[in-house]
Amino acid sequence: MEQTRVAILAIVVENPAHAEQLNQILHQYRQYIIGRMGIPYDKRGISLISVAVDAPTGIISAMSGKIGMLDGITAKAVYSKL
C-alpha cells in the first residue's frame, strides 16, 4: 500500500458557475475524502470550502491542481507533518 498523507484543501469559489465541475472533481476523488465543509459568504459573493483528505501526495496534488485550474476557483493544500 502506498504511503498516504493527511491534508486540508482550502478552496475559494469566486465563480459559482463552475461549482458543478468542482463537485465532479471532488466526487472523482471521494475515496480519499475524510470530510468537507462549505461556507457561503454572501457578503462577498464567494464560498469557502475545506476538504480533509487522506491520500498519497501525488493524488492530493492532482486533485488540488485540477480544482485550481477551474476559472474563478483557487485551491491550496496544507499537509500534516505526521
UniProtKB/TrEMBL annotation:
NCBIfam families, A to Z: hyd_TM1266 (TIGR03959)
InterPro entries: Acetolactate_synth/TF_NikR_C, ACT-like_dom_sf, FeFe-hyd_TM1266
Record's protein name: Iron-only hydrogenase system regulator
